[in-house]
Amino acid sequence: MLLLSVLLNGLVFGSVLMLFSLGLTLIYGVGRVVNFAHGAFFSVGAFVGMAMSTAGQPFWVCLIATPLLVAVGGALLDWAVLARLRDRPMLDGLLLTFGIALALTGVLYAAGGRSVQLFPVPPALAGSTSIGGVGLPTYRLFLAGFAAALMLALMVCLGKTTWGLRVRAANDQPEMAACLGINRETLMHSVVGVGAALAAVAGVAAAPIVTVQATVGDKLLILGFLTVIIGGLGSFRGAIVAAYVVGLTLIAGEVYLGGQLAMILLLVVVMVMLVKWPRGFFNEGRVE
Questions:
Q1: Could you tell me the CA-to-CA distances from 274 to 14, 17, 233, 277 in Å, in that order?
Q2: Cα(118)–Cα(111) distance, integer angstroms
Q3: Tell me, what's the pLDDT at 201?
Q4: Fewest Cβ atoms closer than 10 Å to its Cβ: which of 34, 109, 147, 202?
């Protein structure tokens, strides 16, 4: 029974991490940007969703409207700020996104994000569901299914749409994509917007579980980077598999070993991957 509970909770945590990490992978893959502001996008999503819920909006409206708003903000941020450093060394972009993360966190603090707020579970998803004799909150099962559905929709979009083909071309062969006339600037605006939306929808969906405060995305940012490294830099399939590996490793480690040892176990997994499989599970990530 305990093992099944660990597996189910690892699946739920991995689902949140997957949405978050796919946004990181998109932004890095196309723009080669190590986006330290991604955790702040998660926090903004959770905070905006909480504000809309407090204002009386149904959970489903919050879940749909929040990522759309954050997507627009992310695209505008790329157009106004990030594009200015597009061809500068990676360190410049890293420092810039770190500064943006601090600024967004400061705004959330000023808006009341210092205190922990509880995001109510929607009544339709309250209660628990028994699976194999183990009761698991219905909302967590919904979250896992919702994340899987979004992941499949994104993969279909990347594989079947013109935008997705351009993203894959810019991710896999940036020089060839430029020769074919793909406008990198316009593409990056949309990619940052989609990446920000993925972080935001993860923030809203996870809010009833992790609570809401200004720095809620900080820990997830570290785990997101570890996920992207394990999966392979720029690998979408790798990020998906790695997210569930990280989620299961942390949950199992916390149950059987304790919180600190669980993190040490995860770092051991990362080190082994970097030494043995530096390009990730599918051998398609970059080594930079």
A1: 20, 20, 11, 6
A2: 16
A3: 96
A4: 109
- Residues 107 and 183: their CA atoms lie apart, in Å, by 33
- At 161, the amino acid letter reads T
pLDDT digits (tens, 9 = 90+) for 200-228: 999 999 999 888 888 888 889 999 999 99
- CA neighbours within 13 Å on the CB side: how many for 186? 6
Overall CATH class of domain 2-111+124-276: mainly alpha
135 forms beta bridges with 130
Apex 209 CA angle, 133 and 120, nearest 5: 105
**3-state SS, residue 102:** helix
Residue type present at position 192: V
Mean pLDDT by 10 residues, the chain (288 residues): 78 92 89 88 93 90 94 94 82 88 90 81 84 78 93 92 87 73 85 95 92 86 91 87 91 79 83 83 69
Q: Where are the domains of the chain?
A: 2-111+124-276
Q: In the numeric block, which tokens belong to residue 278?
A: 């530096």
